[in-house]
Design a protein that fits this description.
Chain lengths: ~575, ~425
């Protein structure tokens, strides 16, 4: 019989993809050569993934494609030079933040490294926040098991971290009366995945539950365990709780290489981590770098997979629409049930808005968050899952990119090659829903690796409860008045759409993982996220930031690096400030 | 400050509309107070340091702050309380009147009650997302009003070289302001075939400074990762769709938007008052009272976006007087007889949307034409009866017009409709 690489080459040729070299590397299929376009690149990757192999490394070049701009952190110093951490987590997404927090259950030193100016500004800050029930993934996949476990764990996590979880439930609406025939198959899959409480709801009853639901539904399969949470608040809360339990978070800190030494035959050990803020030693390292996880694996000489990038766009609707729908709804095409993403639909948020989306589109770049009319048109077609929604209800939209392996499953395992490296890679959807479970496991792997080097004790002082900043709107009128009397800043409401006070903005700037940018404040407080989109509160927030961070207004940024607000002073302020400066 | 258990009239918003409403209500003998979320009264006028305000009302060219100050001084003289930095969390219908749940940094959480409630909450600006501008989302995309605040109030420059999208008045004013501050305005792009701001502003703010105005064009994409690096502009067809092949890349560090104002009516909406989709404001009768909820009044830009502050003050004054009359009136509610007033041919909208024909007297009607017409004849009729006729040398959509008519003594049965005929403007 022919070897797998030969068979892959044959199949690729049959599909018109010639000149591709296929080799087997560490049980993964590696593709090299050149393809005409991004579609062919995808076709080649997926074709290879259908063969028996550990993973696919798609190193095909795409003709004429400009390489992605490398956005290096502006910062360069020696803050970390010479330090040592027992455990280092790379990536401040929800996976990294949760893993760091789980690691603080042990009496070890923990560092969380994030290359950008805040945690949770990539996939984890750009998703739907659905705590999926765990039905969509194939039985037996890591996605299915971690999702179902994560879903259950979130009840506790939500309480501990003080981030609200709303178990709103979700309904898969049947588009076609014939789909009713699939219900036994749905029940079977739910049982295989361990999803509890599923029910079939007939058409009439669906109208009773969701008054505004589309008339074109033929009943629904319902998942009462489905919930929603604010994904970025969850990630930030995990990071804050990690810091409260002794971890250190380093922002603007990008890992750019490792130092390795040989250990057992054919194996290595990671000794040091190189960053733009210095090189330091580490006993164990967790790769939670999201869309860059293959790059981190490469630094460690363990690149047995590569990623492709699937963009998703969502629209956010005005809070006025929040009352129009309680549950998440979706109406996937039959064939999409087996496809790579859930069809998308309408998702409530814990803050009372509705989300429409996400779309799914493969793109050739990793951090490419632009949106186009095509995306919006695609989302418009989903508005009519609810009869009461209008285009004018859209207040904004955003894009995120899912990090997908070619096998389309999570990689959650200790490296086979590097003794003290753990991968949490390819964490695409339902990665948010799975995060608590993934974090438990990667932390356990890390501790196992550590235990081979030294004794590891539990952290007796670990407190799972995050000290959360006050939310005056959750207090009774009497409590709130008392709070305001003790600190009037909580009585100065500066964000008119979301009702956020100056006190809350100040708290965000002083929290254990403080906001350094306007977007950071937005994610922590919601100021500027309402219908006017910062039109009124931005100037006021900048003044508070300037005072708290002790930075002049001209140096404040939207989201770090060069995203400045101002180019300078006006003619009138210029001389005044100059004179003041001169006299001082 | 002594607070009555229940105020006759509470006014939300201390912009020119709210100030005029409060003064008028007070002068009619009603106990009146104003709620304002900012730290000073004056509304958006605080940041409008250019002149041109007050020509109709005072026969003078004042700056925004000067105009506002005239009303603020009178409010102070009459000792009408203004609750500043006070945030309205929720309003509800309480007994025969209203209850406002408020928060501020002095009293904490508290409630004020009133018999009549006037919303003079102004408007907010439409954002880039709401006009569906695509591409990346770097720093440097501001609405014109925000840029105005940065420059005029905070003293910071938001850009060196910018593109302005939309030819609304604030955008035009900002084109001049930025130029005076030494920034370069590459051009103003307007999706419509004619400017949406006042002619006076096109001349004084663009032509006098040789800033090009590109009509029937738009911005289709924003470029740049951290800060805006450029935008793609292109021509649009009659359906406002970009014409392929006309795209042009413009280097700039900022995109300023003047793409429309949205009346702020979350308060009235939460109380169950329907909004007119044409104006974005509550549906009202000639007393500026909601047709759905007696005792709730609306005025100024919250009612419909005005291009002249003088008209804003006028609607405020009328709404305030009517609110006082309502609050001080006998508890028996007057029975209203509402007849709709509808926009007909060539009319974009009319305010009020209903006329209470049980009330005698003069009705003030505001309207905008839906296109530019010369020698325009406006006809207001109800069934066979013609109520009013008037000719205008020219009517333009950016310019709001004002008419007055009398409700015939024997009342009216059929809906009132305003039609306009006229000649299409020659290029
Ligand atoms: C549109 C959309 C909708 C989605 N909806 C859902 C949903 O409803 N439910 C759900 O469960 N999942 C959803 N997902 C998936 C979910 O968002 C992801 O699975 C999850 O956020 C992945 O988290 P992460 O921590 O792995 O990645 P990320 O959040 O991307 O974090 C990785 C971090 O690593 C950092 N990093 C990378 N390289 C380096 C380096 N060299 N040095 C230092 N730091 C580095 C990055 O800056 C980044 O912050 C959705 C995804 C998208 C795009
Ligand atoms: C950015 C901008 C620039 C403008 N520039 C010009 C110009 O150059 N020339 C011109 O003629 N017209 C201009 N206009 C039009 C101008 O808005 C009107 O002329 C006039 O100022 C509107 O008055 P108003 O009282 O209706 O609203 P505003 O002046 O907007 O006042 C509304 C007030 O209500 C307060 N308020 C709103 N909601 C609440 C609440 N829930 N609780 C408490 N208080 C609340 C606000 O803080 C504000 O003080 C501009 C408008 C805007 C938005």
């Amino acid at each position: 019989m022919k070897s797998v690489p030969d068979r892959v080459v044959k199949t690729l040729e049959k599909k018109g993809l010639t000149g591709i070299a296929v080799t087997l590397e560490e049980e993964s299929l590696c593709l090299k050569g050149m393809v005409k376009n991004h579609d062919d690149w995808l076709k080649a990757g997926y074709t290879a993934a259908a063969f028996p192999c550990r993973e696919v490394i798609n190193d095909l070049a795409i003709q004429g494609l400009e390489p992605e701009k490398d956005r290096l952190p502006a910062l360069s110093d020696s803050l970390l030079e010479g330090r040592h951490f027992d455990a280092v987590v790379i990536g401040g997404g929800v996976i990294g933040c949760a893993a760091a927090r789980e690691l603080t259950r042990w009496d070890i030193s923990v560092a969380l490294l994030e290359k950008d100016g805040d945690v949770s500004c990539h996939a984890s800050g750009r998703n739907d926040g659905m705590v999926h029930p765990g039905f969509a993934a194939h039985p037996g996949t890591k996605k299915a098991t971690y999702n179902v476990r994560g879903n259950k764990l979130y009840t506790r996590v939500s309480e501990d971290l003080g981030v609200p979880l709303v178990r709103c439930g979700s309904m898969l609406l049947l588009k076609n009366p014939l789909y009713i025939l699939l219900i036994p198959y749905f029940f079977l899959r739910a049982r295989q995945n361990g999803v509890e409480g599923c029910r079939f709801i007939e058409r009439r009853k669906v109208f009773q539950l969701e008054k505004q639901v589309t008339r074109k539904q033929w009943g629904a399969f319902s998942f009462p365990t489905a919930g929603v949470m604010s994904p970025y608040r969850t990630a930030i809360a995990y990071a804050e709780n990690a810091v409260q339990n002794g971890a250190e978070v380093f922002l603007d800190t990008r890992v750019r290489g490792f130092r390795l030494e040989p250990s057992k035959p054919g194996k290595t050990r990671l000794t040091a981590v190189e960053t733009n803020r210095g090189t330091f030693t580490a006993s164990v390292v967790i790769n939670a770098a999201g869309i860059w996880a293959d790059r981190i694996a490469q630094y460690a000489g363990d690149r047995f997979f590569s990623l492709h990038y699937r963009k998703g766009v969502d629209c956010i609707l005005d809070k006025k629409t929040g009352a129009l729908q309680q549950r998440a709804t979706g109406m996937p095409e039959l064939f999409q049930l087996r496809a790579k993403t859930k069809g998308g639909g309408i998702v409530p948020t814990t803050e009372g808005n509705l989300l429409i989306g996400p779309t799914a589109e493969e793109i050739p770049y990793r951090e490419e968050y632009s949106t186009s009319q095509t995306d919006i048109d695609a989302l418009m077609s989903r508005l009519n899952l609810n009869r009461a929604l209008k285009k004018e209800d859209i207040i904004t939209y955003f894009a995120g990119v899912r990090a997908c392996t070619w096998k389309e499953d999570f990689i959650i395992e200790p490296s086979r090659k590097v003794d003290n490296l753990i991968h949490a890679a390819g964490i695409q959807s339902p990665g948010f829903a799975s995060a608590p479970a993934i974090a438990e496991d990667v932390a356990a792997f890390a501790v196992e690796a550590l235990k081979l080097q030294r004794t590891v004790m539990e952290n007796r002082c670990f407190n799972p409860r995050r000290e959360a900043p006050v939310n005056p709107r959750n207090l009774s009128p009497q409590e709130r008045t008392k709070l305001i009397q003790s600190d009037p800043a909580y009585g100065r409401v500066i964000c008119r759409c979301e009702g956020v006070s100056e006190g809350e903005v100040r708290d965000a700037l002083r929290s254990s993982v403080p906001a350094m940018t306007l977007d950071g404040i937005k994610r922590r407080t919601r100021a500027g996220m309402g219908r006017c989109h910062g039109g009124f509160c931005t100037p006021r927030i900048l003044e508070i930031m300037s005072a708290e961070l002790k930075e002049p207004m001209e140096r404040l940024t939207k989201r770090g690096a060069g995203s400045l607000f101002f180019t300078g002073l006006t003619k009138e302020t210029e001389p005044k400030k100059a004179v003041k400066g001169g006299e001082a | 400050m002594m607070n009555p258990k229940e105020w006759d009239v509470l006014v939300v918003g201390a912009g020119p509309a709210g100030l005029a409403a409060a003064l008028a209500a007070h002068n009619k003998g009603a106990s009146t107070a104003i709620i304002e979320r900012e730290d000073r009264p004056g509304g958006i006028l605080k940041q409008c340091i250019h002149d041109g305000f007050g020509l109709v009302r005072f026969g003078e060219k004042l700056t925004g702050p000067e105009y506002a100050f005239r009303d603020i001084r009178r409010i102070e003289e009459k000792k009408i309380p203004v609750f500043t930095e006070t945030y309205l969390e929720k309003s509800e219908i309480l007994g025969g009147g209203f209850g406002l749940h408020l928060v501020n940094n002095r009293a904490g959480v508290f409630t004020l009650r009133s018999k009549a409630l006037v919303f003079a909450t102004g408007c907010r600006e439409r954002t880039a997302r709401q006009v569906f501008i695509h591409g990346t989302r770097p720093s440097g995309i501001w609405t014109a009003g925000l840029a105005q605040y940065f420059i005029n109030i905070q003293g910071y420059m938001p850009c060196r070289r910018c593109v302005i999208l939309g030819s609304g008045d604030i955008g035009l004013i900002m084109a001049r302001r930025l130029t005076l501050e030494g920034a370069e305005v590459e051009g103003v792009y307007e999706v419509l075939p004619e400017p949406s701001g006042l002619t006076r502003n096109v001349v004084q703010c663009l032509e006098d400074y040789a800033i090009p105005l590109h009509l029937s064009s738009t911005v289709t994409r924003v470029h740049g990762e951290d800060r805006v690096e450029g935008v793609t502009v292109s021509a649009v067809d009659a359906q406002r769709r970009p014409v392929p092949g006309t795209e042009r890349y413009v280097e700039c560090d900022c995109l300023i938007l003047s793409v429309g104002l949205i009346p702020e009516n979350e308060g009235p909406e939460a109380l169950g008052t329907p909004l007119d989709r044409l104006t974005g404001g509550p549906i009202i009768d000639q007393r500026y009272m909601s047709t759905a909820l007696a005792g709730l009044f609306s005025c100024g830009n919250a009612l419909h976006v005005s291009d002249l502050v003088d008209y804003v003050s006028e609607t405020g004054h009328s709404a305030g007087e009517a609110a006082a009359v309502y609050a001080l009136g006998k508890s028996t509610k007057p029975s209203r007889k509402l007849v709709p007033l509808r926009p007909g041919n060539n009319v974009r909208y009319t305010v009020p949307q209903y006329v209470d024909v049980s009330l005698p007297g003069t009705v003030t009607l505001f309207f905008r034409s839906s296109r530019t017409l010369e020698h325009a004849r406006a006809t207001l009729s109800s069934g066979e009866t013609t109520v009013l006729k008037k000719t205008f040398p020219v009517l333009r959509p950016p310019e709001m017009e004002r008419l007055e008519f009398q409700v015939p003594e024997n009342g009216l049965e059929d809906a009132l409709v305003l039609h306009i005929t006229g000649r299409e403007e020659k290029g």
